[in-house]
TrEMBL record:
It holds the Pfam family PNPOx_N. Gene3D superfamilies: 3.30.450.40, Electron Transport, Fmn-binding Protein, Chain A (2.30.110.10). Residues 163-323 form the GAF domain. This is Pyridoxamine 5'-phosphate oxidase. It comes from the Bacteria. PANTHER family: 5'-PHOSPHATE OXIDASE PUTATIVE DOMAIN-CONTAINING PROTEIN-RELATED (PTHR40660). InterPro entries: GAF, GAF-like_dom_sf, Pyridox_Oxase_N, Split_barrel_FMN-bd.
């Protein structure tokens, strides 16, 4: 009885790029050519993409005779498979191209070919047939985690969350406890400034809460830009993040100019996976994972985490769009400021950056929120505020999405908890919070250049 034909799904682990793949083409006159290709990328159960890097004999043959044969190898068992392919087109942008570009950067750095391996395009092929190459193969070890069970446990955790702050924490707990991922971050999307900012992290000496990544920058920014997971199996400088060094600026007397929060990532990650959190056309954030080990994340990990990110997106929409009840819980007792030396709070109107004495705290929308709260408190003595009034304040430049405000409040709350013992924001019910000052403050506003104070 003949065995069922193999599908691309069945041999997907062979497409990780750990073992170079041999590619055979033929010129119109019948002259064969065999070379190695850097990448054979999974597209779907009927298609793969091969990296187009050079204008060489292989490229010439394919454009004249669009048939090819590629042999791929399983990185752990050594089993080999021969794919018969038909060339369809070349893509020079989009999800597949960006995914392959990122992976190629990792392969190039790993092999010392960073200046040579440059992706010109992603050649899309239809898979006509797959056959197993005769030969012995090693038995495969059981996976380190049952990913379906991990996904079930993770989604159960986030389904129980009643607010975004709990959701951020529960998502990272699930990544660590259920998926056994030790270095993880949750970044939210700021639609107003079109960037990503860290709202929670696990596995780092410093949390990096508030650190920012531009859309299109590194593996995180690219994943956000093209709305597709980006996975890299080898160390690459092209997709690394260089953390800001606060001490250098302070020693140079530039403390007030240093307005960046250091990114908390590993200095030399050998595996990276960024999964966008998307709801329809809206980008809500990115889950970022990294490891000091090479090839830590495979296709199955990627699939499970894409499904998890979809559940997070649905929960973010549910919690962000929830109505704030009219009746709120009683606020906690607020400690009165002591008579010690006042805390100097400087606000730079140019980017809403806020410094507590000489220590940078936050900027952007979160900085504008804190400045408003402190200003209202100094003018009227208020300590109780609501999300609703902030949302209606045109000066804060909030987009028309509720979760952006909630995420910014969470960011501000966590930054204050980390950086100051004198100012705190405490919830006292859904959509209501209290500003706590344990020390009197002196407010100094630095206007934009060319504007009066």
């Amino acid at each position: 009885m003949n065995a069922a034909p193999l599908s691309v799904d069945a041999i997907r682990d062979c497409l990780e790029g750990s073992v170079p793949s041999a590619m055979a083409t033929c010129a119109p006159d019948g002259t064969p050519n065999v070379t190695y290709t850097s990448q054979v990328e999974y597209v779907d159960e009927h298609h793969v993409a091969l990296s187009f890097q050079f204008f060489n004999k292989t490229r010439e043959n394919i454009l004249l005779n669009p048939r090819a044969t590629v042999e791929v190898t399983h990185p752990r068992s050594g089993a080999c498979y021969r794919l018969s392919l038909m060339y369809l087109r070349t893509e020079c942008e989009g999800r597949i191209f960006e995914r392959m570009k990122a992976k190629l950067a990792g392969i190039a750095s790993h092999t010392g070919m960073a200046g040579v391996f440059k992706l010109r395009g992603a050649d899309i092929y239809r898979v006509l047939s797959i056959e197993a190459v005769p030969g012995a193969a090693l038995p495969l070890l059981a996976p380190r985690r049952n990913l379906l069970a991990a996904l079930r446990s993770a989604t159960t955790r986030i389904a129980a969350c009643a607010d975004l702050e709990a959701l951020f924490s529960a998502s990272l707990t699930a990544l660590v406890s259920d998926f056994d991922l030790r270095h993880a971050m949750f970044l939210a999307h700021d639609a107003a400034d079109n960037l990503l900012y860290t709202v929670a992290s696990r596995g780092y000496p410093e949390s990096g809460i508030g650190s920012e990544i531009a859309i299109g920058d590194g593996v995180i920014g690219v994943a956000a830009e093209v709305r597709t997971p980006i996975r890299i199996a080898h160390l690459t400088e092209e997709y690394s993040y260089h953390r800001a060094v606060r001490e250098t600026a302070r020693e140079a007397g530039l403390a007030f100019a240093q307005r960046e929060i250091p990114f908390p990532g590993l200095p030399h990650p050998h595996s990276q996976l960024a999964v966008p959190i998307v709801a329809g056309p809206r980008l809500l954030g990115v889950i970022y994972l990294e490891s000091p080990d090479e090839s830590r994340f495979g296709y199955d990990d990627e699939d499970a985490l894409v499904a998890f990110a979809a559940q997070i997106a649905a929960q973010m929409l549910l919690l962000g769009d929830a109505e704030e009840p009219a009746i709120e819980a009683e606020p906690p007792v607020v400690a009165q400021p002591s008579d010690t030396t006042p805390l100097t709070v400087r606000h730079y109107a140019e980017d809403h950056s806020v410094f507590l004495d000489d220590d940078y705290l936050i900027k952007g929308v979160a900085g504008a929120i804190l400045w408003k709260l402190l200003g209202d408190h100094q003018e009227t003595g208020r300590t109780q505020f609501t999300n609703r009034e902030l949302r209606l304040d045109a000066g804060l430049r909030l987009p028309d999405i509720a979760d952006n405000l909630e995420a910014r409040l969470i960011l501000l709350t966590r930054r204050l908890a980390e950086r100051s013992s004198d100012i705190a924001i405490e919830r006292c019910g859904r959509g209501r919070f209290v500003l706590t000052l344990r020390r009197s403050v002196t407010l100094i506003n630095v206007p934009r250049p060319g504007m009066a104070a």
